[in-house]
Amino acid sequence: MSTTGTVLASTPTQRLLGKVALVTGGASGIGESIVRLFHIHGAKICIADVQDNLGKQVCQSLGDEANVVFVHCDVTVEDDVSHAVDFTVGKFGTLHIIVNNAGISGSPCSDIRNADLSEFDKVFSVNTKGVFHGMKHAARIMIPKKKGSIISLCSVASAIGGLGPHAYTGSKYAVLGLTKNVAAELGKHAIRVNCVSPYGVATGLALAHLPEDERTDDALVSFRDFTGRMANLQGVELTTHDVANAVLFLASDDAKYISGENLMVDGGFTSANHSLQVFR
Ligand SMILES: NC(=O)c1ccc[n+]([C@@H]2O[C@H](COP(=O)([O-])OP(=O)(O)OC[C@H]3O[C@@H](n4cnc5c(N)ncnc54)[C@H](O)[C@@H]3O)[C@@H](O)[C@H]2O)c1
User: Fold this and answer.
1) Cβ atoms of residues 193 and 182 within 8 Å
2) Got a GO cellular component term for this one (predicted)?
3) Which atom of ligand 1 is least distant from the CA of 153?
4) Which residue, 32, 53, 129, 241, is the most exposed by fewest CB within 10 angstroms?
5) pLDDT at 73
């Protein structure tokens, strides 16, 4: 068989046809875009989120109850994640892909002496322990099948300091560490483990640090202006769809030999430092 023939055969229009995926935090933001893109690409999807109404609305809006379902799941609770995995397998027969996307930013704190350790625990609980729960329970299904793709949402804050609160940055470096370590364990079972690290995207998370009455459209516009000005790639705005495309790539057979990677979706932000103004 020619190599070219293999490549052509592995790029169907629907890149996830026949695949079953579980997406945590799939009720809004980046997770919702991942759900919608996976659906276009033929996957059967279970959305796992704490926002029941929003999650159910995403399912209804897709109008495909047979292939897109919702389950309530708080990723900080191991039993919830275990149940979400079993629920997905119960509905669709197996699990090929898990996207550990649920995450929170935590409150900003510019002075470490005032750091609130309960806030620190909360951020690690969702962003790191939540991801590990997903990895553990997905592996439970994937190991006997000898295949699977585990993808976690990381961040540019997993590559350099100074981009977010300490707990957020620490939790995302930990996601990267877990990704590499779990990839090392699960390689022998042909299970791929990767993460995706976006630059700032205008979602609820981007405004979560503001009081509720300040989370307005104007605040989103300010966030987009700011991230646009600070970006390396100028004149191109990062959207949730762009992040979903990177996740789709890692989920699909197009990435069949990629594991242990942190795919940066940051337009070069973490590889270029413009503070010396050499090119600006
Ligand atoms: N938006 C950005 O700028 C950005 C940048 C880099 C990385 N990320 C990462 O991308 C991921 C998604 O972020 P987003 O911007 O879409 O955020 P978002 O706030 O828009 O959506 C997060 C989703 O996760 C859900 N969620 C929160 N806590 C949960 C829990 N305990 N259990 C289950 N679900 C829970 C929320 O209900 C929500 O639907 C996060 O891991 C985030 O850290 C976001």
Assistant:
1) yes
2) cytosol
3) 41
4) 53
5) 99
Single out the residue of 177, 173, 208 nearest to residue 29, CA to CA.
208
Task: Indicate which CATH number applies to the domain containing 115.
Answer: 3.40.50.720
What domain range includes position 75? 12-200+238-267
Cα atoms found within 13 Å of the Cα of residue 186, Cβ hemisphere only: 29
Q: Cβ contacts of residue 63 below 8 Å, gap of 6+?
A: none
Counting as low any pLDDT under 50, the low residues of the chain are 1-11
257 carries an active-site annotation = no
For position 210, what pLDDT does the model report? 82
Is 220 a domain residue?
Answer: no
- 145 C-alpha to ligand 1 centroid (Å): 29
* pLDDT per residue as tens digits for the range 229-257: 999 999 999 999 999 999 999 999 999 99
pLDDT of residue 12: 56
Q: Is residue 146 part of a domain?
A: yes
In a domain, 123, yes or no: yes
Q: Residue 56 and residue 49: Cα distance in Å, rounded?
A: 10
Question: Does any domain span residue 6?
Answer: no
* CA–CA gap between residue 99 and residue 249 (Å, rounded): 12
- pTM of the predicted model, to two decimals? 0.96
What is the 52 CA–ligand 1 centroid distance (Å)? Answer: 15
Q: Give residue 9's pLDDT.
A: 46
Q: How many domains does the chain contain in total?
A: 1
